[in-house]
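Exercise 3.2. Students should predict the tertiary structure of the chain below and write it as structure tokens, then compare their answer with the key that follows.

Predict this chain's 3D structure.
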Amino acid sequence: MAAAMTGGTAFIRNLSRLFQSRLPVLVGGPQQLLCLHTTSSLEVHKWERKNRVVYPPQLPDEPRRPAEICHCRRTIKYSKDKMWYLAKMIRGMNIDEAIAQLEFNDKKGAKIMREVLLEAQEMAVRNHNVEYKSNLYVAESFSGKGKYLKRTRFHGRGLSSIMEKVFCHYFVKLVEGKPPETEKRTSLDQAKEYVQSLKNRTIIHSL
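Answer key:
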């Protein structure tokens, strides 16, 4: 019985020493725990990691690879649906034209998107070796759903309801070069394509 108690005490003493040896040393600032993974950062997301991609060197006869700049702004106090209309408007535009269109738009989301585009344009020149900052176009532009906070809205006669404070994220991707030419289609062409798609469909379980 005494031997068992002695062995248990020794095990607890060794365990406490092991835990104390893995605690961070206070001298010289906080250090990482050896038994815990504390190196993950909450500020770097998947969209920003695209700027860190390193491509292999190109051959002398290959055309120059255009620079790509991914930038975003998160937790915007704005609706994702309202932001989507503005994001769709500037998609495929030259960077200067997109900034000009947003400058004369009086919506709240347009001012935020203009700031994000200017930040991305500055990043292109500073970090991605873009020679002319006007030689960029908006390749991707879209919004995403952020967090929704539920709050209480008080009414008369002691009644209340739940209201939501909505947030959204905005993502943009700039590519070096001239914007690609889009095929211009009229409403009549779109109507003909829609009618043709209806004719080509297969209706199952029919006569």
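Discussion points: Confidence is low (pLDDT under 50) at residues 1-5, 22-43. The chain is about 40% helix and 20% strand.
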